[in-house]
Design brief:
- It is a single chain.
- With 416 residues, the protein is mostly helical.
- Among the domains are: 200 residues, Alpha Horseshoe (Serine Threonine Protein Phosphatase 5, Tetratricopeptide repeat), CATH 1.25.40; 82 residues, Tetratricopeptide repeat domain (Serine Threonine Protein Phosphatase 5, Tetratricopeptide repeat).
- It is built from 21 helices and no strands.
- The longest helix is centred in the C-terminal third of the chain and has 18 residues.
């Protein structure tokens, strides 16, 4: 199936969306250990300039340096590299020539050589932001995540809002560090509305953070018939509580979509059916398709619960409930794990197993202490277990959180 491409998008939109949703929504610690995203090969390295890497070169290097810059500007990267490699053997070779050589190695897909020449330039505390950016790109290509994080973080500190912010934000998204990623990618995307990859990633993160209006803003200028954008529109409608509208958008997509979107389309359409008060088709969509996906399991369990199949919901969630962490430590986003705990606790209450529900829901409040639903459900579990005082205390905590949520939000910083 031919997919329309979003303007200036550096990877196919479908791949961007499915990667972010699969990784950022995952609560299992293994998500953070996956390989980093490939660096943006089409990103123009900021070090490709005659001044990159510092000044102070000997005059004997000026002519070959200018020739190399002219060749690079004309897209003759191999010829420019040959000039710079020869210049590098000259004791008078300036740091800016080495920086340019590293950037050009990246352009011709030689990240190992790039990092070898850029690493010494990136070691000093006052290293140039462009050098740090390119060193970070090279480290990403070599799957050296700790080194890439270090270089990119230092570059962002020196130049907030630079391309290094984009790359670090995408890396954070891939690691499931949703809030950090969004804080970098939303401002970048608003300033760079033709960067399709960053826009779609930021929009996906906005959905995960339950900010439908911001997600809608981010995709407003993108092709509305692109399958990834259709899916995003469905997710936004689900968040807005318009289950019927989401079903109308997603049913045609379910019939015709790229293979790699299968899991996300099914899960989102199932959520839409649940929101529209039709849990049975949601169960039909997801039954026997959990395959270790906690987000899919949660939607299926909610649909089973609403259909009256409490036992089925418990069976669906049990493998994930058994792996719930004690708290939020090590989680990029604690809400997926909290969602599993809350629904499992509610199922236990309805199954007449209130003491077990109490233990699970207490854990939910430890994972996400500010979750209104967790405290409300815990209050219900305490009440079912005959612990009246505890039930009242949990209800009071829930009421306090609800009042806080109704307070006017602080205005966002400029550019956010």
């Amino acid at each position: 199936m031919h997919l329309p491409r979003i303007a200036a998008c550096r990877v196919p939109t479908v791949a961007t969306l499915t990667t972010v949703m699969a990784l950022a929504a995952a609560w299992t610690p293994a998500a953070a250990a996956l390989a980093p995203p490939a660096p943006a090969a089409a990103a123009p390295p900021p070090a490709v300039s005659a001044s990159a890497g510092g000044a102070g070169a000997a005059s004997s290097a000026d002519a070959p340096m200018k020739e190399a810059v002219t060749l690079a500007s004309a897209g003759k990267f191999k010829e420019a590299i040959a000039k710079l490699e020869a210049l590098r053997r000259d004791p008078a070779c300036p740091p800016r020539a080495t920086a340019l050589l590293g950037a050009l190695y990246l352009k011709v897909n030689r990240p190992k050589d790039a990092l070898a020449v850029l690493r010494p330039l990136a070691e000093p505390a006052d290293a140039q932001p462009a050098v740090l950016y390119n060193a970070g790109q090279a480290a990403l290509a070599l799957h050296d995540v700790p080194a890439a994080e270090g270089y990119l973080t230092r570059a962002v500190r020196q130049q907030p809002g630079s391309p290094a912010t984009r790359e670090l934000g995408l890396l954070r998204a891939h690691q499931g560090r949703v809030v950090e990623a969004y804080s970098m990618l939303r401002p970048w995307s608003l300033r760079n509305p033709k960067d399709g990859e960053a826009l779609l990633t930021a929009a996906a993160l906005a959905v995960l953070l339950e900010r439908p209006a911001e997600a809608e803003q981010l995709i407003a200028g993108m092709p509305q018939d692109d399958p990834a954008i259709v899916l995003m529109r469905g997710k936004i409608l689900v968040l807005k509580g318009d289950g019927k509208g989401a079903v109308a958008v997603l049913v045609p997509l379910m019939a015709h979509h790229p293979k790699e979107m299968e899991t996300e389309v099914r899960r989102t359409l199932a959520e839409a059916y649940v929101g529209a008060g039709q849990p049975k088709p949601a169960v039909d969509l997801l039954k026997d398709r959990v395959a270790g996906h906690p987000a899919v399991a949660l939607v299926l369990a909610v649909a089973q619960h609403k259909s009256g199949d409490v036992l089925g919901g418990l069976v669906t969630l049990r493998p994930f409930a058994d792996q719930l962490p004690a708290d939020a430590k090590g989680l990029g986003d604690p809400r997926p794990a909290t969602g599993i705990a809350i629904e499992y606790g509610r199922l236990l209450i309805d199954a007449g197993r209130s003491p077990e529900a109490v233990a699970v829901l207490e854990r939910a409040t430890h994972i996400l202490p500010r979750s209104l639903e967790a405290w409300q459900s815990l209050s219900q579990a305490y009440g079912a277990a005959g612990r009246r005082a505890d039930s009242q205390a949990a209800a009071a905590k829930a009421e306090a959180l609800e009042k806080e949520s109704l307070l006017p939000a602080a205005p966002p910083p400029p550019g956010r």
